[in-house]
Amino acid sequence: MNFTQWLLAFSGLGLVLLGLLFIAALMVYGERRILALLQDRLGPNRAGPFGLLQPVADFLKLLTKEHFVPPFADRNIYIIAPIIVPFTALLSFVVVPVSDDWWLADLNIALLFILALSSLRVYGIMLGGWASNSKYPLFGGLRSAAQMISYELPMSLALMGVVILSGSFSLVDIVAAQELPFIIFQPIGFMIFLVCGIAETNRLPFDLPEAENELASGYNTEYGDIKFAFYYLGEYIGVLLIAALIAVLFLGGWHGPWLPGVFWFMLKTLVLIFLFFWLRTSLPRLRYDQLMNSGWKLLLPAALINLLGTALLGLFWMEG
Amino acid sequence: MSQLLWLIPGAPMLSALIIALLGGLLQRRHLAILATCAAAIAFLVVLLTWLAGAATSQPLQQTLYTWIAVGNWNPTIGFTLDRLALVMVSVVSGIGLLIHIYSITFMAEDNDQRRYYFFLNLFLAGMLILVLADNLLLLYLGWELVGLCSFALIGFWYREPMRASAGRKAFVTTRIGDMSLALGIFLLYSQFNDLSLSYLLANATAQWETGSQLATLTALLILGGAIGKSAQLPLQVWLPDAMAGPSPVSALIHAATMVTAGVYLIARTYPLFELAPHVQWSVAAIGTLTIVYGASAALAQNDFKRVLAYSTISQVGYMFLALGCGAYALALFHLVTHAFFKSLLFLAAGTVIHFSGNEHNIHNLGRLDNHSPLVRWTFLIGAASLAGFPLITAGFYSKEAILTATWSAPAGPLLWAFAAFGVLLTAVYIFRVYFIVFQGSRSNASTPSAPGSMTWPLLILALLSLIGGFVEFPVGWLAPHQWSVWLEDEFRLTVHPPLEIAYSLQFITSLLTLIGIGLALVLVRREQAGHYLTKIIFLRTGWGFDALYQTMLIQPYFSLARLLKATDALLIEGILHKMTHACLLLASACRRGVEHGVLDKSIAGLLAGFRFGYARLSATQNGLLSRYALMISMGAVFLLSYWLW
Amino acid sequence: MYEVIFYLTAAIAVLAAAAILKVTHPVHAALYLVISLLALALIFFLLGAPLLAALQVMIYAGAIMVLFLFLIMVMNLRSERNQSLPLPSGWKGPAFLALILWLELLLLLNRYPAEETNENTAIEPKAVGHALFGPYLVLVEAAAVLLLAALIAALYLSRKGRS
Amino acid sequence: MIPLTHSLIIAALLFTLGLLIILLRRELLFILMGLEVMFNGAALTAIAAGQYWNNADGQVLTIFLMVVTAAELAVALILVWLAYEHFKVTQVNMLTQLKDDTRGEPP
């Protein structure tokens, strides 16, 4: 690669990065409006037309706050921890194909790459909770670690069904293999991945690490200013990532009649994002033991059975 | 018929699984019934195979499943039922069933029946797998299962530290043998790349010369395994302590079945032993020594069950003797009759102990008057059979046959003399116990009547102990010799001495038995007069083997450390200080500077040496993980540098 | 470029591992270890083992080290300078030992001089899977048994701790 | 490209560092981390060698290494936790229950 190509590559990456940040900001606005709509109230509507500039205002507010590090905190880790969360989510987008000729990288282990990054995400939350050196954040961090470990296993196992069906770890190949969306062959896998995806992003009804009424605000209690913004951003990028992944893995990605692939991909993702927002308004938070039980005693066995069934299917039907 | 083979070990195994997994849902009584039913199914299948003509047909085969197929190695779960296995299976499942029935009452009060029946069934399954296995790997699996269950059942009442440690002792001791067997299996595999028994034995005979090193080594290793399981010298120490388990367990495991696993193993792999005549002879020698050892130790015991334990050691010695003389069929014959009368003795003893408030001491038992006549008579039958009471007992025929066969083996008369001495001792010790416990007993009204499930097994076993020997009459008699003829296909016929010698041998041993019974009477009189045999500590402690092992194997390391520590203390605080001081005084008095320096230095050097050694050696035991890690890595580095260099 | 990335990553892996020797707080040590593990994952990737790179991150960094951190947080270990420094017997002996070991390892590993390869071709996950479930099938079964045993042991021990 | 030797040197370095951590640190968790580092050194050796011969065996070996590590740590971490529960310390020099008592009585 010569210098121009490097430059192009990096500028492309930069553009995607900016685009993602922009979308995340829009999602914050969108969620607040949708929540308001579903809860029969107004929501942000002052800044700009329909309140569209609200995220900008929020961002500016957080940016200009004092950069405060609590004196009892572990300084370095306290600062690094919030960066990890959006960083891992953003990095995952490298392998997500948007349409049949539009992606950043086609790794042959793309799916594992995403799983690996999502397993790193927990460090941001755990370390943030620990470095704050006060009790609610610590509990938030602990809960998050336990939750992540419990839900990562069924999530990975649920994805293995998809891998068996498509015969590849590469997301491009997986989408290409979906003449019919995999949700038809993998309804259980889809459900498990959806639930685990929500749990991985710490959204309701699985937002135990930041349960407001039990733990103040959980792992980010001690965070303000731009560092808090990173956590906030990370959560929304995570939601976007999970939605995009479900669209790619189970709903056929860019496949769809008449219209260009990009449109179908975006439509599917948006519907899923809406689903996430919707769930937030309608479902109560789980109790902690319920969370653990459902992870280990329901989702994991279900994922194993799903994997076994798919493997048998692959053994007897696809090969022979 | 061969499709049903899997049921023989399968039924107890399934029942064990059910008890383990779902036992909590069942009532205690139902647990016992379930376990007994499983044993009954196994026994019924065995009966069916008899009826279906397994006794005369070709060996039955069933291959259930291939464990793992790697390359050209396919270890299977496969069963073979030839005549040898048929005998073993009948004994194991039959006695097993009787003991399950007996246990229903015996263990009725126990709180831990679930564990008991789980292990009892698992044991039965393991033993049947061991016997039926058609390859060494599966055989070894059964072998280990049996060992595990034995450990768990000996230490069944593990809350008493004594019993728990008895279980551990059995486990550790037999483990030495197990390791030897495992090594033997590895060796065979490395030579033939297969573990199937028929293939191995055929190939070994074809490829190895008689007396070749490999054959000797293999036979030795297998013998090691057999010795451990069968409690022969020098690995016999666990069996007397194994009596800590419940009586039915002692009867099943430590009399009738498990201890005969070694006998079975040797009989199964006898072509290997024929390839190694020295090893085969040492089997006979070990057997003979064990006979005398066990019988003499049994003489001096006070504990009812320990007498029987030593007796078992000694009787299994007869089987080894027969194996060593090439009389495999006769070893098997004695195995069967021994299973009958020894489990009868154990169950009778268990009943006595059970109804006397767990009293084990024979002298105390003798003072009680409440032994029911049934128990008394059945015990008498068992004792007579064990002693080999002429003509009417099974023990007579089997033992007689072995003794006669011994004569024609290498160094036969010597072996025979020992074994015959064993016969005398056997009669003495068992009738000594019988007279002490039962002599004064009258049947009186207060006798607690044992329930049917306890008495029926006794009666059946008593009957078998009497008539079980009629399948094989001694050499030279006009009566039939069915047993050895029937087993002729499996083993070659035994060589017998000339008729006149055989007759005189038979006469002498019968006489010895009768003399022994008389001696026992005299002995008991003396004991009741206060001349206790048990004062002979050497005999009572089983020739002091426990103490020997304690001193030989366990103590030295401790002693070394203690010695160094003691030396250190003594030297530093005691003598050396004074000596140094005295020397210094002397030296200064003489003003001989040179010697002063030399002496002082040498003594100080000695002191430092001791101190250094002590510190170094005690540092190996300081419990510091880092230090241990350092040692390990130092060793690794040292080895590596040695290798590189 | 490739070489630069490789040696840089290797330096990070080694330095991060060395940092564990020095830090006082368990959490910091765990983080250095994570860094070392991630760097190693990148090395695996650069050497042409993408599957192992991903697994390294998922299993070591994503699961095992999270457990480590979890335990440290639950036990609320603090950095106790005096207690976590080398043993009283000093650091010289072990350091010397380690040096010898390293030299020996170098000697050992370079005993059979290797020719330089032109290209590290990546080995696809598929090839690894074929090897895993072909000639190494027995090992897979054994590993399954091992994991089951560890699972049962861990469960039992945690129950024991609770009562 | 990277010569095999260089990978092996790095692996040896990691291995030795792990050993040093085990020998010098006293906290149980540090020792376990040292083990991890040692494992990593071994894994790097396997993978580098496997790639050198263009063979998947090295990667398979490393997968088994991971399995063993996972099994080992699952038990080890629980044990550390139990040690902490019972003795309230996690320094190895405080955990000397296995030390032979000075009387030297055999069990």
Give the key terms.
heterotetramer, B: 645 residues, mainly alpha, 3 domains, two-stranded antiparallel ribbon, 27 helices, 2% strand, globular, C: 163 residues, Four Helix Bundle (Hemerythrin (Met), subunit A), 2 domains
Give an account of the 3D structure:
Chain A is built from eleven helices and no strands. Chain A is mainly α. Chain A has two domains: 64 residues; 248 residues, no CATH class. In chain A, helix 5 packs parallel to helix 11. Chain A is globular and about 60 Å long. Chain B folds into three domains: 134 residues, no CATH class; 362 residues, no CATH class; 91 residues. Chain B has a two-stranded antiparallel ribbon. In chain B, helix 3 packs antiparallel against helix 4 and helix 15 runs antiparallel to helix 17. Chain B is globular. The termini of chain B are far apart. Chain C has two domains: 80 residues, Four Helix Bundle (Hemerythrin (Met), subunit A) (Up-down Bundle); 40 residues. Helix content of chain C is 77%, strand content 0%. Chain C is globular, with a radius of gyration of 20 Å. Chain C starts with a helix and ends with a helix. The model of chain C has no long low-confidence stretch (mean pLDDT 81). Chain D is an all-alpha fold. Helices cover 72% and strands 0% of the residues of chain D. In chain D, helix 1 runs antiparallel to helix 2. The N and C termini of chain D lie far apart (60 Å).
Low-confidence stretches of chain B: none
The count of domains of chain D is 1
Radius of gyration of chain D: 18 Å
Q: Report strand % of chain D.
A: under 5%
Helix count of chain B equals 27
The percentage helix of chain D is over 70%
Unreliable stretches covering 5 or more consecutive residues of chain D: 102-107
Alpha-beta classification of chain B: mainly alpha
Structurally, how many domains make up the residues of chain B?
3
Overall shape of chain D: elongated
Give the oligomeric state: heterotetramer
The H/E string of chain D reads: HHH
Strand order of the largest sheet of chain B: 1-2
Structural class, from helix and strand content of chain D?
Answer: mainly alpha
Q: Would you tell me the overall average pLDDT of chain B?
A: 80
Question: What is the succession of H and E elements of chain B?
Answer: HHEEHHHHHHHHHHHHHHHHHHHHHHHHH
Q: Helical stretch count of chain D?
A: 3
- Major sheet of chain D: none
Tell me the number of strands of chain B. Answer: 2
